[in-house]
């Protein structure tokens, strides 16, 4: 490590440029200013890693941890612009704050690539240099619903504990108002119903994408409903892992005490649980390609090129690149592993 970068680290990195822009030649590369809503998010840490890999030798990436604080993120954007960012890659804290960011970038003609938290289409339309990189949120819900329905049909004897033919579930929701959380919640359950399976919701609450919060919720639900719960549906793997931890404490996954749990993301820790039989499946949220696409578009924008120049991505009518989701079970677990390599 160079002296300069250790000083950078020593002086604290909350408004840092990862201490990575030291060293030869980096200053001649165009600067991309980026924010992640919080570094302490399991899935986003993989997106971040992919962004850093894609930025290498291509752009000078100034990456900030917004620490789940929208006001802080707005200050970071001011600083990034002051430091000469030629484009911005923004993972919003609050999806509703997109306009505020655009209001800062547009007067300076700085392109903005939003990623992971989708802004309203009308807001993106209002600035010709604003784009989105993410997914089609509803797709993850539909795929998760299909996975639940298939698992239920194949294991009804075991899963339908009270033999009433209905699937009694609890649902761990992501951040309320987050397009992924809202769409996954709705489409997962709707899809199960469309397959002709009757469902009954015992409980649903947010655990904010977070494993620890999910363990607490699941502890409380097990205390209240115990054996009445027949399925645990989680909007992401972080919360699914939190639920598994709670279930293990309560004696599940040993002997014939079992609970089907599903998530979304396919992070390596969840794939491990699937292999151990402690999760039924998940839906791949392709962190690597979302991080790569974000940097590729932001790099092109910073160089004044067409955002898609030299890339394999396509924009839809809302100026969005949408990376597909894939259903993951034990049968195709390698697909998940490859995506997080
Ligand atoms: C979702 C992901 C969650 C969480 C969230 C953050 O796409 O599935 O695990 O990372 O983004 O915005
Ligand atoms: Ca039942």
Distance between the termini: 26 Å
**Helix content class:** 40-55%
What's the order of the H and E elements?
Answer: HEHEHEHEHEHEHEHEHEHEHEEH
Determine the structural class based on helices, strands and strand pairing: alpha/beta
- Count every helix, treating DSSP H or I runs of 4 or more residues as helices: 12
C-alpha Rg (nearest Å) = 21 Å
Tell me which ligands are bound. beta-D-galactopyranose, calcium ion
Tell me, what's the shape? elongated
Strand line-up across the major sheet = 2-1-3-4-5-11
Mean pLDDT: 93
Largest sheet: 6 strands, parallel
Residue stretches low in confidence (pLDDT < 50, at least 5 long) are: 1-24
β-strand amount:
15-25%
Number of strands: 12
Could you walk me through the main structural features you see in this protein, from its secondary elements to its overall organization?
The chain is an alpha/beta fold and 341 residues long. The protein contains twelve helices and twelve strands. It has helices spanning 3-10, 42-55, 70-82, 98-105, 121-125, 137-159, 179-194, 211-225, 237-249, 268-275, 287-302, 333-339; strands at 31-36, 60-65, 87-90, 112-115, 130-134, 167-173, 199-206, 231-234, 261-262, 282-284, 320-322, 326-328. The strands form three sheets. It has a six-stranded parallel β-sheet with strand order 2-1-3-4-5-11, with helices on both faces. Strand 8 (231-234), helix 9 and strand 9 (261-262) form a beta-alpha-beta unit. Helix 2 crosses helix 11, helix 3 packs parallel to helix 4 and helix 6 (137-159) packs across helix 7 (179-194). It is elongated and about 65 Å long. It starts with a helix and ends with a helix.
């Amino acid at each position: 490590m160079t002296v300069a970068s250790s000083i950078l680290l020593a002086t604290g990195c909350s408004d840092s440029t990862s201490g990575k822009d030291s060293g030869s030649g980096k200053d001649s590369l165009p600067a991309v200013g980026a924010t992640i809503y919080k570094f302490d998010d399991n899935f986003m840490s993989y997106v971040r890693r992919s962004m850093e890999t894609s930025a290498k030798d291509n752009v000078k990436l100034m990456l900030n941890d917004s620490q789940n604080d929208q006001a802080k993120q707005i200050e970071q954007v001011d600083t990034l612009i002051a430091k000469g960012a030629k484009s911005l890659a923004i993972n919003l804290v609050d999806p509703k704050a997109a306009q505020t960011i655009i209001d800062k970038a547009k007067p300076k003609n700085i392109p903005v690539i939003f990623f992971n938290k989708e802004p309203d289409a009308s807001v993106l339309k209002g600035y010709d240099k604003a784009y989105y990189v993410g997914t089609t949120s509803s797709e993850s819900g539909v795929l998760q619903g299909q996975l639940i329905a298939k698992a239920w049909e194949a294991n009804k004897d075991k899963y339908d504990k009270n033999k009433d033919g209905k699937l009694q579930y609890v649902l761990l929701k992501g951040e309320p108002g987050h397009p992924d959380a809202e769409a996954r919640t709705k489409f997962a359950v709707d899809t199960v119903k469309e397959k002709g399976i009757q469902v009954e919701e015992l409980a649903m609450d947010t655990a904010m994408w977070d494993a620890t919060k999910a363990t607490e919720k699941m502890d409380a639900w097990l205390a209240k409903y115990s054996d009445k719960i027949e399925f645990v549906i989680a909007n992401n793997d972080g919360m699914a892992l939190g639920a598994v931890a709670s279930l293990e404490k309560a004696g599940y996954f040993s002997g014939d005490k079992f609970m089907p749990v599903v998530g979304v993301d396919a992070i390596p820790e969840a794939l491990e649980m699937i292999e151990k039989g402690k999760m039924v499946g998940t839906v791949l949220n392709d962190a690597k390609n979302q991080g790569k696409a974000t940097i590729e578009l932001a790099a092109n924008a910073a160089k004044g090129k067409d955002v898609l120049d030299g890339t394999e991505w396509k924009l839809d009518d809302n100026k969005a690149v949408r990376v597909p989701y894939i259903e993951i079970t034990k049968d195709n677990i390698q697909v998940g592993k490859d995506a997080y390599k």
